[in-house]
UniProtKB/TrEMBL annotation:
GO BP of this protein: translation
Gene: MRPL27
InterPro entries named among the record's database cross-references: Ribosomal_bL27
Family: Belongs to the bacterial ribosomal protein bL27 family.
Any single GO CC term annotated in Swiss-Prot or TrEMBL for this entry: mitochondrial inner membrane
Any Pfam family matching the protein: Ribosomal_L27
Protein name: Large ribosomal subunit protein bL27m
Subcellular location: Mitochondrion
GO molecular function terms noted in the UniProt entry: structural constituent of ribosome
Coiled coil: none
Signal peptide (UniProt feature, chain positions): none
Lineage of the organism: Eukaryota, Metazoa, Chordata, Craniata, Vertebrata
Keywords per UniProt: Mitochondrion, Ribonucleoprotein, Ribosomal protein, Transit peptide
Length: 146
């Protein structure tokens, strides 16, 4: 048995407990909720909205964004520029055209080293984004020369 003094409060009594009963009185109840982990919380982040913004046949003005990409999925073609973050944009007004063309990388690039490992006669096709400029009308105004 165990003797426990309850203090100098309202009752100055001494109680006796058995050891099993004393342990059961000291166990904390389930009033506190278990804490969750704070690690690996990046799975529910919003998307970055990568992808094409203008379709084949759409009319675009100079400076319009044609596609955003993290890696180079579409290559810049005629009248198309590429930004620092690999965004493709139109350099002139015109109509967007997507084409598949044979891709020949520059000789000193890493891609040319990986092409050397391909079988002989293998051809790489890549998607290029082009802007076909609108044709300028053949009309002009005659200005009198003094």
């Amino acid at each position: 048995t165990m003797v426990v003094f309850l203090g100098w409060g309202q009752t100055n009594a001494v109680r006796t407990f058995s050891p099993v009963c004393a342990v059961s009185n000291l166990v904390r109840g389930a009033s506190k909720k278990a804490g969750g982990s704070t690690k690996n919380r990046g799975g529910n982040s919003p998307g970055k909205r990568y992808g094409y913004k203008k379709l084949d046949g759409d009319f675009v003005h100079a400076g319009n964004i044609l596609a955003t990409q993290r890696l180079i999925r579409w290559h810049p073609g005629s009248q198309v520029g590429i930004g620092r973050n690999k965004t493709l944009f139109a350099l002139e007004d015109g109509i967007v055209r997507y084409t598949k063309e044979v891709y020949c990388p520059p000789p000193q690039s890493q891609e040319s080293a990986s092409m050397c490992q391909l079988p002989v006669g293998a051809v790489l096709y890549k998607t290029f984004v082009n802007v076909i400029p609108v044709r300028q009308e053949n009309c002009f105004h005659l200005v009198q020369v003094m």
